[in-house]
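User: Need the bound-state model for iron/sulfur cluster:
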Amino acid sequence: MASILIVDDESVVCKSCEKILKPKGHEVDSALSGQEALGEIEKKRYDVVITDLKMPGIDGMKLLNIVKEKYEEVDVIMITGYASIDTAVEAMKLGAFDYIPKPFTPEELRSVTVRALERRRLLKEEREKASRTYVRFEYTMPDNLYYLPEHAWVKLEEDGNVTAGVDDVFQKSVGEIINVKLPDVGNEVEQGNLCVEIEDSSRRIHKLWSPISGEVIEINHKLTENPSIVNNDPYEAGWIMRVAPSQLESELKNLIYGEALIKWWLKREVIEKRDDKYLQVSALDPKFKHEIAKQPGGENIKVCFGCGICTASCPVREIDETYNPRKIIRMALLGMRDAVLKSDFIWLCSTCYTCTERCPQGVRFTDVINAIKNIAAEEGYIHPALRMQAELLEKEGRLYEIGDFDNKKREKLGLPRVHSEKNVISEIFKVSGFKEIMEKKA
Ligand code: SF4
Ligand code: SF4
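Assistant: Bound-state model below.
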C-alpha cells in the first residue's frame, strides 16, 4: 500500500480524499498549503502527492515544480477546477502523472491513484531486473504522431481528419482492458476533456482525455467485441476514433510531437542515470514490427503477449539456453532491428512448429522467425553455415555429395545412378534471385 499526501486549501476536500483512499489501505496525510506540503515531504517519503492547482502562496504548479526538482520519484496528480488542456499539458510537461477535473467522484480519484501506483510498480519491477537488457516499461512510441503526454495520441490523415487512440503509457498503467466505452459518431469531443471510458479487469473505470476537439466521424467498433486490441496494438489496430477537427492548428500546439515526446519522456524518466543495461529508445526502430507483420507469416507478431509458452516448448531451447523465441519476439516488438537481424540465434530454429501449435495467441512463431530470416537475408545478414550450404548446393547440386562409392552401392541394390544436378540448381539460384541474395554482404 502507498503513502499519499493530499494538498488542498479546503480542508473538506482533504478530508473527503482521505475518506476515499484510506479504506484501500493507503496511508493518507493532508496539507492545507503548498508550504505545509513541502514541510511534510521533507519529513516523510511519499509515493504520490495529490495537489490542488489553485492555492494561495505556493500553488499546485509551483509545488509540482519543486517536488519534481527535489524528489523526482514522487508521482504528482493535479486536481483542477479549471480544467483546460493548457494547464494540463503544462503540468504534465513538468512531470505531473495526470490531472483530475473538479468535481470528481470517489471512483475517479481511486482509478487515477491506482494507475499512478501501477506505473510505480512497473517501474520498480523494471529497476529490479538489473541484470536484464530492457527499455524502461518497454514503451515504443511511433515518432510520427502528436501526443497528449501519457494519455492519448493523434495522427493527421491525408483527408484533413485525425485518428486518435490511447498511448502505451496509459494502457500499461491500466493493465488488462475489458471494456472500452466509445463516444457516439456525431458527438463533439473537446481537447483535454473526457472522450473514452476504459474498464480494467478489476472493473475500475479510467477516463481518457481527448487529445483534440471536433466531431467524431468514425469509431473503432472492433474494440467493443475485443477491447484487448488496445493492449496489444495501441497505435494501429487499437485506434479509438476518427475526428473532424475543429481547431486543429491551435490545438496541435498543446500536444507534443513524436521525436520531441521521446526526448521529453527520456528526460522525465531521468535516463541520464542509465547504464549499459538500458537501451537507447531513440536507437530503436518502432516500424520493425510492422515490417515483419507485412511479410507472409509475420502477420500475427503484434498479438504476442509474452507468455513464454513458445520458449517452454521449444526443443532447441532445451539444448541451447541462449535460444529464446519469446525474447526474440520481444526484441522485435521493441524495435531492436539491428540486434535481431544481426544475431546468430534467429538461424537456430529447426522449424518443428511445436511453438506454433501451442501459442495461445496464434502468433505462428515458426512463420514469424522465417519472416525475420527473410528480412535478414535481404539485408545480407546470412549465417555463415547457410552460406556454406548454398555454395555446396550450387557446386555439387546437392548437400550430400554422391560419389562413385555411393553409386556402386546403388547399382548393387538395383537402383539407378545419381547424377549431379549442379547446372539445374545453379539455374534455379539465378532465376529465383537466390544467388543475388546469397552474394549480398551486410
Ligand atoms: S507462445 Fe505465443 S503469445 Fe506466448 S510468448 Fe510465444 S509467441 Fe508470444
Ligand atoms: S519451430 Fe523453432 S522456435 Fe518453434 S519450437 Fe520448433 S525449433 Fe523452437
